[in-house]
Each structure stands twice: as C-alpha cells, then as structure tokens.
Amino acid sequence: MTIFEKIIAREIPSTVIFEDANFIAFEDINPKAPVHVLVVPKRVTARLDEITDALEVGALFQTAIRVARESLGLQDYRLAVNVGAGAGQVVFHTHVHILGGWADRSADAHHDEIGHP
Ligand code: AMP
C-alpha cells in the first residue's frame, strides 16, 4: 500500500483540499512553493505512463485545473508530474503537483514602472 492510499483511506492524516469519487487533492507535506497541492487518482497506478486511457489522463488534468482554479483560487500555476525515479519521483502512486502562489510577476513589473520597491 502506498502512502497515498493510506491518505485516501484516512489511515494517515493530511489536509484534504478536494475529493470526489475518483480523485483526492491534499497539501504536500514538504511544499516547494507557497501553494503546493497533490492531485491523486484513487485508482492506483505507479506512474503516469501506466494510464493508457486518454480519458483517464484527461480527467486527472481537468481535476488538477479545477482544484487549482476553484479550490485554491489560483490564476497562474504550474502542473508537474515526475515520471520515474530518474525524474525525481519518490511516491509510486501517480500524482500531479500543483505549484503556485508566487508574487504576481506582472504586478511586480507594474510596481517597477511606477517606482515601488
Ligand atoms: P514525487 O517526487 O513526484 O513522487 O512527489 C512526492 C511528493 O509527496 C513529495 O513532494 C512529498 O513531499 C510528498 N509527500 C510525501 N509524503 C507525504 C504525506 N504524508 N503527505 C503529503 N505529501 C507527502
């Protein structure tokens, strides 16, 4: 059983952001950005390239987009998937990282224009 299955089963705690019949989204325990959430399919596969059904891959990404926009209120964000140990995958239960919440770069540019720090 992967650590993410234990989170789905509520055997270990997590901060759940979103859940439906097929997916769960929860905060990453070791955030790499001001907002860092993992979107995890409940159907267990080890890595993204094991999912052969295009609709299932699409549903995973559509869910990640919905969580980013609707649950987290992010306009700009990064979706990332590590596929395999060589790419940095550590938990072998397919998941999408949502990263965001950095200062708005266009706002920074505007501040420079008008002389704010
Ligand atoms: P990856 O490197 O793509 O396999 O990402 C695995 C992610 O899972 C890492 O960013 C970890 O910080 C995160 N993680 C590991 N254990 C937990 C946990 N118990 N709760 C939340 N996130 C976790």
Strands, total number: 5
Q: Low-confidence stretches at least 5 residues in length (pLDDT < 50)?
A: 109-116
**Biggest beta sheet summary:** 5 strands, antiparallel
Classified by CATH, the class is: Alpha Beta
**Overall number of structural domains:** 1
Main structural class:
alpha+beta
How much helical structure, as a percent, in the residues?
25-40%
Let me know the average pLDDT. 92
- The named CATH superfamily: HIT-like
Major beta sheet, strand line-up: 1-2-3-5-4
Count of DSSP H/I helices: 3
Envelope shape: globular
Just name the CATH architecture: 2-Layer Sandwich
Taken as a percent bin, the fraction of beta residues is: 15-25%
CATH topology group: HIT family, subunit A
Ligand roster:
adenosine monophosphate
Order of helices and strands: HEEEHEEH
Q: Termini, distance in Å? A: 50 Å
- Rg from Cα: 16 Å
Describe this structure in words.
This protein has 117 residues and is α+β, with helices and mostly antiparallel strands. The protein has one domain (3-114): HIT-like (HIT family, subunit A), CATH 3.30.428.10. It is 29% helix and 21% strand. It is built from three helices and five strands; from the N terminus they run αβββαββα. The chain has helices at 3-8, 54-71, 105-114, and strands at 16-19, 23-27, 35-41, 77-80, 96-100. A five-stranded antiparallel sheet has the order 1-2-3-5-4, with helices on one face. A hairpin with a 7-residue loop joins β2 (23-27) and β3. The radius of gyration is 16 Å and the shape is globular. The protein starts with a helix and ends with a helix. The model is unreliable at 109-116 (pLDDT under 50). The structure holds adenosine monophosphate. The site of adenosine monophosphate has 12 residues, from loops.
